[in-house]
């Protein structure tokens, strides 16, 4: 059964624990195992942290989250209204890193099955993170 859950949070790192708790419950109820749930939580946490730190850079703002899940996948859409930035165009870091940090884009791409940046979003950013249920990736 398809379902969609949407909510908004202030662009503040104090909101991250609540987002992780809510996502854990949503993904668990959709049949994702603990490993997959952990991967999605880490990827979303990295994206939200980067949005708060870089897109809003200390300014007040809002982040909209939408989780759409179907029997075979979950898609987490993250929408912000801050500085435009396509993380898919950023170069991947040198590994091992010479300096701490800078691994958020790498982790997001490594942990999720698909990462899509919506170029048609002209006011801020819209990123879709997709995770398939183990052994249930759709054909094609």
Please provide the ordered H/E string of secondary-structure elements: EHHEEHEE
Under CATH, the topology can be stated as Heat Shock Protein 90
The biggest sheet, with number of strands, parallel, antiparallel or mixed sense and barrel status, is: 5 strands, antiparallel
Domain unit count:
1
What is the end-to-end distance?
21 Å
Folded structure, characterized:
The protein is an alpha+beta fold and 140 residues long. 31% of the residues lie in helices and 26% in strands. The protein is built from 3 helices and 5 strands, in the order βααββαββ. A 5-stranded antiparallel beta sheet has the order 1-2-3-5-4, with helices on one face. The mean pLDDT is 89.
Q: What characteristics describe this protein?
A:
140 residues, alpha+beta, Heat Shock Protein 90, 3 helices
Short description:
The chain has three helices and five strands.
């Amino acid at each position: 059964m398809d379902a969609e859950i949407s909510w908004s949070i202030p662009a503040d790192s104090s909101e991250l624990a609540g987002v992780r708790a809510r996502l854990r419950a949503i993904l668990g109820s959709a049949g994702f195992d603990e490993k997959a749930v952990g991967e999605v939580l880490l990827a979303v946490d990295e994206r939200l942290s980067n949005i708060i730190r870089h897109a809003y850079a200390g300014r007040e703002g809002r982040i909209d989250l939408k989780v759409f899940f179907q029997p075979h996948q979950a898609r987490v859409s993250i929408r912000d209204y801050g500085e435009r930035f396509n993380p898919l165009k950023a170069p991947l870091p040198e590994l091992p890193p010479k300096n701490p940090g800078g691994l958020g884009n790498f982790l997001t791409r490594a942990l999720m099955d698909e990462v899509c940046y919506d170029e048609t979003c002209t006011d801020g950013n819209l990123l879709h993170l997709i995770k398939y249920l183990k052994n249930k990736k759709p054909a094609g």
